[in-house]
Automatic annotation (TrEMBL):
PANTHER family xrefs: N-ACETYLTRANSFERASE EIS
Species annotation: Microbacterium testaceum (strain StLB037)
Keyword list, A-Z: Acyltransferase, Transferase
Assembly notes: Homohexamer; trimer of dimers.
Protein name: Predicted acetyltransferase
MF terms in GO: aminoglycoside N-acetyltransferase activity
This protein's record includes keyword Kinase: no
Record-annotated active site: Y151 (proton donor), Y434 (proton acceptor)
Binding positions for acetyl-CoA per the UniProt entry: V110, T111, V112, R118, R119, G120, I121, A122, R123, T146, E147
SUPFAM superfamilies named among the record's database cross-references: Acyl-CoA N-acyltransferases (Nat), SCP-like
Taxonomic lineage: Bacteria, Bacillati, Actinomycetota, Actinomycetes, Micrococcales
A GO BP annotation: aminoglycoside antibiotic catabolic process
Family, as annotated: Belongs to the acetyltransferase Eis family.
Length: 434
């Protein structure tokens, strides 16, 4: 059972020793202590942001109070209190099958000062997180990434993909269903609770998703201090015929010189069911004076493509989004439901050791898995790296495709059985950044 109170877990001694050997200090940062502002300054600088105001820092503090903040200091510097490395993490949960979740060690705010790059600081911080997470019983770690080149070396690999969507509203023409319920504008102040409520229902059904948090929703609602377009945020909620609020769209409209070609930017569109989704997309596409609708983190093949006359009016740019890293093979593979029976021996290579070994995955006709360590002498039928296994976990990619890329080795018939069993009940998606 994963420990959910990550704030009390000790610092990883291996990372502390590695950093000390370079004259660096590795410390936990208290969100309510004096180390917080310098920590936050270092994070903002790492992500190329400006210096934050007191209001912005207070806003960030509200979220970061619940997180494990760790920093690396070079005390010989001009500003010894400002970290040269930052990372934060927290106990989240990953939906692995509709209605089913696994504890997830979520990582964010990974920055290293540009003056201290490529000296192994990130390596020490990420290694420290993975060892701490594994020791605390987390079977899976996860993050979202700025660059696809960084995290593969630590066994992370994409497990859920998302599309950035643009719709040329002049071409699209709605042909989708007519939703029977109603849309109403809701005031900005009411957006946070409403988005939270709808998203909670959505994320629990969608493999690859994680819960949001108050700060994330305040940002989407335009209520975060320093948000220059906050005043322009509008929201509409959808209620079905029975009065249940099943969808919400939060957006801004960017004005263009051509008055009929303004751009509607979706900040959030969460819908519990197809009916709410149709109502909200139709509202966006048919909005007066809007020539383009833009939305991020949509399903790989966005459902709205099937609801317009000209599907090419909807362009979708696919990107890897949720990167996962299996730390405990039985815990991770046992956390989801499968589509069919399977009995297979996997040989997993993991240079960091966590998932290394030979494992037997047995799935019964009921879709429930039992994973045990196999005898090393047992012939393995599938050979793969921990990254490949992490990508396969939710069924977002087929083992056959990874085999084509040389990342999985198995006989053709074994690959077919694996793919059949791993077929997800819903395509994995992560609909927020973290
Ligand atoms: C990405 C970042 C954290 C790396 O920190 P770092 O301390 O320089 O990394 P390390 O020295 O520990 O590097 C470890 C390995 O990762 C590689 N690496 C580091 N950053 C990389 C990058 N951006 N692209 C590709 N490889 C990278 C290093 O070359 C090294 O490889 P090696 O072990 O094969 O020699 C740092 O460059 C940074 O703060 N970038 C801006 C903020 C950011 O993008 N953070 C990531 C958020 S998801």
């Amino acid at each position: 059972m994963a420990s959910l109170d990550t704030l009390t877990l000790p610092l990883d001694p291996t990372s502390a020793a590695d950093l000390a050997a370079s004259g660096l200090e590795y410390e936990r940062v208290d969100a309510d202590g004096e180390g917080f502002r310098p920590f936050q300054r270092a994070v903002a600088r790492g992500f190329l942001g400006g210096e934050s105001t007191d209001d912005e820092a207070e806003n960030a503090r509200k979220t970061l109070r619940t997180r494990r903040l760790t920093a690396v200091y070079d005390r010989r510097g001009v500003e010894p209190a400002v970290p040269v490395g930052t990372i934060d993490s927290w106990a989240s949960e990953l939906t692995t099958s509709p209605g089913r979740v696994a504890p997830l060690w979520s990582i964010s705010a990974v920055t290293v000062a540009a003056t201290h790059r490529r000296r192994g600081i990130a390596r020490a911080m990420i290694g420290g997180e993975l060892r701490t997470a594994a020791a605390a019983g987390f079977a899976i770690a996860g993050l979202t990434v700025t660059e696809a080149t960084i995290y593969g070396r630590w066994g992370f690999s994409p497990a859920a993909w998302a599309s950035d969507v643009q719709i040329d509203t002049g071409r699209a023409r709605w042909t989708g269903p007519t939703a029977p319920g109603r849309l109403d504008f809701v005031p900005r102040e009411a957006v946070v609770d409403r988005v939270a409520a709808v998203h909670e229902r959505v994320r629990i059904q969608r493999p690859g998703s994680v819960p949001g948090w108050d700060g994330r929703w305040r940002g989407i609602a335009g209520l975060a201090p320093g948000d220059k377009s906050g005043e322009k945020v509008r929201a509409v909620a959808y209620r079905g015929a029975d009065g249940d609020e099943t969808g919400i769209l939060v957006y801004t409209i960017d004005e263009r010189d051509d008055f009929s070609a303004h751009e509607l930017e979706v900040r959030a569109l969460f819908a519990v069911d197809a009916e709410a989704s149709a109502a909200l997309w139709r509202f966006a596409i048919e909005h007066d004076l809007v020539g383009r609708v833009k939305a991020w983190l949509q399903p790989a093949v966005p459902p709205v493509q099937w609801m317009v006359a000209d599907r090419r009016a909807v362009t979708a740019t696919l990107t890897d989004h949720h990167w996962l890293r299996i730390l405990d093979v039985p815990g991770a593979l046992g956390s989801r439901r499968y589509a069919g029976a399977l009995d297979v021996v996997l040989r997993v290579a993991d240079p960091l050791g966590f998932a290394e070994g030979t494992w037997r995955l047995r799935v019964g006709a009921d879709g429930e898995a039992v994973v045990t360590r196999a005898d090393e002498s047992e012939a393995s039928e599938v050979e793969l790296t921990v990254g490949a296994l992490s990508s396969l976990l939710l069924g977002g990619v087929r083992s056959t495709e990874l085999a084509h890329a040389g990342l999985v080795r198995a006989g053709a018939d074994v690959l077919v059985s694996v793919d059949r069993a791993f077929t997800p009940e819903a395509t994995p998606l992560l609909d927020i950044w973290y």
